[in-house]
Target: Tol-Pal system protein TolB
Amino acid sequence: MKKIHYLLFSATLLAGSAAQAQIKVEIAGVGSNQIPVAVAAFADESIAPDQVSAIIRADLERSGVFKVIDAGQVISDSASPDLAAFRARGADALVVGSVTRQPDGRFAVRYKLHDTVKNAEISQMGGEVQPKYTRLQAHRIADDVYEKLTGTRGIFSTRIAYVKEDRAARNYTLAVADADGENEIIAARGREPIISPAWSPDGTKVAYVSMEDRKPVVYLQDLMTGRRNVISNVKGNNSAPSWSPDGRTLAVALSKDGNTEVYTVNSDGTGHRRLTNSPSIDTEPQFSADGQTIYFTSDRSGGPQVYKMSVSGGNPTRVTFNGNYNISPRVSSDGKTLAWISQRSGGYSLYAMDLASGQELRLADGATEPSFSPNGKYIMYATKGGGRVSLAVVSVDGRVKQRLTTKAGNIREPSWGPFMK
Model:
């Protein structure tokens, strides 16, 4: 029972009925020292399936980094806007653009970013896309604005994976959507629980655990072809997949030898290799950003704590010391921050640790299943409130908070996808 508790922690703690609608984003908080940016309506954007400027505004607002100012007018990227006027309105930057229908049915979406302080153009972007990709192009523009004004790569054009659950109907689906919850597709479904989705580094596959064989088995779903392969179905429980940064191997938790231990396995399902060797439960492995270290949860100290060890083996080192129950470690892509779930004072909270200094910060209460954004600036997690489970996002400094909800049902097990090349 102790092993099953660790394996099914996320699935049992946040049980409920399935979501029937796409995610709605609600901004629950904003950061301080926001960058004021004016966003103009794009010229002729009404001909496109999506209003490009509105998507850009929503992305920038959702980040919490920007104070978005409605320009109140249409400004094309070919125009010469009065930057001094926008500076007088308090804007440090101005976003303008246009949409043009091409003879082949595609849309040319172009934009420019102006610095109103220096009275100069900062960036520009143009591209021709199929009608169904106009929303994606808007996200890419928002990414460019974010990067040019903050120095950090934007994550608006990335995707997320999550599990939708209807326990009463025994219906479980693995869904993939844009980072704002739009364009949802169903990657896999079944009548038994699905847990622990994990994106491949190239963003084309998702590993996950399904109970359809009456025990946990790790599968790999190819999002491009729809093909599904078994990654690990050895004796006992197969759980908690995590990709190496190079995409060649996965770390998994297996009980094939009677006790749950951390293993690695090749991405084609071959070459199981045991890393931990203790009478305790070792589970929830996660690769470090450089692929040289494995973080994992173990109760070898008497209660669950986060440990780390070399991917080549050796003696584990304890990482978490505050609190008696620390699980679900996740490491940011830049290798600077560790996130995990800690049970203190009777509740589950999301914590983050600066790995260089060891300083901890409590980011959110009532949280489980954390997942870092690919730029390391945000963490998505599952949270229960109002009788259902939804997803939420918090910045690593705790200043920006969002909630992603549906009208009914539960969404859990979030996994934030990588940057797409």
Remarks:
- The chain has two domains: 2-23+156-416, 35-150.
- Confidence is low (pLDDT under 50) at residues 1-21.
- Residues 35-150 form a domain with the Rossmann fold fold (CATH 3.40.50.10070).
